[in-house]
Write a structure and sequence with these properties.
This protein is mainly alpha-helical and 477 residues long. Helix content is 49%, strand content 3%. The protein is built from 19 helices and four strands. Strands 1-4 form a two-stranded parallel sheet. Helix 14 packs parallel to helix 16. The radius of gyration is 22 Å and the shape is globular. The N and C termini lie close together (5 Å). The N terminus and C terminus are likely disordered.
Amino acid sequence: MRARGSGTNALRAVLSATFAASLGVLFTQPLPAHSFTSYANDFVDPTYILGKKFGNTTTEAQATIVQWAQDLAAQGPWSVMNKTVTPPTGSKHDYMSWAPYSWPDCSKVGNTTELTPEQIWTTCPYYTRDGLFNPDGRLINDVGEFGDLADAVLYNAIAWVLDGDAQYSANVARFVKTWFVDPDTAMNPNLNYAQMARGPNGQVGQHTGVLDLKCMSKLVSGVLILREGKAAEWTSDLDTQLTNWTTSYINWLTTAKIALEEESATNNHGTFYYNQLAALQLLVGDKDAAKQTVEKYFTTQYKWQIAGNGDQPLETARTRPYHYRAYNLAAMITNAKIGAYVGYDAWNLTTSNGTTIQSALDYAITKPAGKETASELWPNVVAVGAVYGDPDGHYAQWMRQNAGTTYPADAQFLWNQPFSDSGLVKAAASGSKSGSAANNGSTGMVAPDDNGAAALSGPWSLLAAAAAVAASTLLLS
């Protein structure tokens, strides 16, 4: 393959076919019971988890969490050092990802011999195709590794409370130490090369890359559970070292040019920015700052994100409107949950159009998913129903009709309470715990991220490998 117009098109076609075929397997074939869900984002109140006042209808969700904790722990730890491509600094300690919707055009570079992948990345101009993932972006998977880390920390921390086994808290400590603290494996506290632009004028990070670490709010939830629960494995030394790293990263997040550009983004990127910053401020013990951060979001971006009919115009305008409405809604809900934790009630705050988070959900559930992933909206329905109430059972009925009879087995059903199980949890009648997550009817929902990281753990490395094989086949032919 020569990286000219026809060669680039051929490469693009094979990579797209490989990616599409893999997604087809992931999203259309029955998922095993052990498949786990990576929600777009969430914040879990550690006080609620440590209080352990869970209703009997959450027994299946509890079993799912324990199983997911075990499955994830078997795959860790994770580190930025695992990538095979080195950032421009020459140090793999720098986090790195490529812009997910960016594609090369090598038709005018004037090459007379085949271009290597590395030459394509630096020589060919890149252009954006909104909503269309470039599969070779997963040749670097720092974003996927961090997503798995955040989920592993959250689920293992909750499993420690549910099961009492110190192995779960030890898992969290090991994973956090590897990603943030250990000098051999730790990430440098910046995102200077996140969603990096490629091409002759690229090799720099973009503000959209701040989104890559949006799930800090899930990771922080897990850390707070161990910290406030006084887990022996969560030592004061580890806590101090993580706090020091986070303090440095907060400084980058609040001063770097690309970070401030992300803060001012009017769509989901801005919403998720506030998720991340507020959660990190909680981690370093600054609740006042976290409250100010949440308040800033609800008095700025939030004010114009929801139209009078409940639509989110900036998300609906994108190529995957169902996904982006659910995506931003998850971020709004996360900001409101953090607000509730620090004493700032945002649930009934209205936009300039007189609408609320509930208005956005009520509009979203009227729109069909079409070819998009329907399950992305389900956690939002349960979260909104738990906060605003569901006196006529409208949300519960919607969940049963759309999510099926196993929705009470999904992990988030534990912390998004009260919400009706529609009489589906057998343990509710006897008050006994249901069986293992292997046979609890786990939903196996999938929620693709805006940065292209799939919700399922593991398969992204398979997709990256498939894309690499496809690329190598063409480049060597």
